[in-house]
From TrEMBL:
Gene3D superfamilies: 3.40.630.30. PROSITE patterns: GNAT. This is Acyl-CoA N-acyltransferase. Residues 1-162 form the N-acetyltransferase domain. The lineage of its organism: Eukaryota, Fungi, Dikarya, Ascomycota, Pezizomycotina.
Length: 195
């Protein structure tokens, strides 16, 4: 499984995954707006085991996260927002959603200096709530009555990105220490730092 940045050519496949898995659906231009406005924040999971039979064969996208920065945050604090997260049923419980979310959160901090990330989730979506709360550490900030078009309530959830900022700062410190100790660094040493 490969996780990579979403590309505009992925958008029809993302829309298909959304139609397959989620009750909320968006126009293609909404996905395009995210991809062009915040190209660093949205990722796809691609099934790398599927062989390509021609140069025109599209990759099999099995999951995605669509994310953005809040353009005019009411609290004045730069923060990200997860617009949509979806993993195909055939690829669930493999850690893909967690990897997509963590990659997007890190990009929010590195690229935009985000302090926290928010999202909305249906109160009936127990599996997603467990992922966000138990695996990723989100907390329920408030309930939003009748948030969804069908009248269902949403939990507004939030995650402080301070630990990610601290991890990035530590990695930068280690890299600086390594480059001061010797004027060249091998790819193996860089990979060891990243893991």
């Amino acid at each position: 499984m490969d996780i990579r940045l979403l590309q505009p050519s992925d958008l029809p496949l993302i829309q298909h995954a959304n139609l397959e898995n989620l009750p909320e659906n968006y126009f293609l231009k909404y996905y395009l707006y995210h991809a062009l406005s915040w190209p660093q924040l949205s990722y796809v999971a691609v099934d790398a085991s599927r062989p390509r039979t021609s140069p025109y064969d599209h990759p099999k996208i099995v999951g995605y996260v669509l994310a953005k920065m809040e353009e005019e945050p009411s609290d004045g604090i730069p923060h990200g927002h997860i617009t949509s997260l979806s993993v195909m049923r055939t690829h669930r419980r493999l850690g893909i959603a967690e990897k997509l979310m963590r990659q997007s959160q890190r990009a929010m901090v590195e690229t935009f200096g985000a302090k926290y990330v928010s999202l909305h989730v249906r109160v009936s979506n127990v599996a997603a709530i467990r992922l966000y709360r138990d695996t990723l550490g989100f907390t329920v900030e408030k309930a939003e009555p009748k948030y969804y078009a069908d009248g269902e309530d949403a939990h507004c959830m939030r995650l402080d990105l301070g630990p990610i900022r601290a991890q990035i700062a530590e990695e930068e410190k280690q890299m600086e220490k390594l480059t001061r100790a010797k004027p060249w660094v091998t790819w193996g040493e860089i990979r060891a730092l990243a893991s």
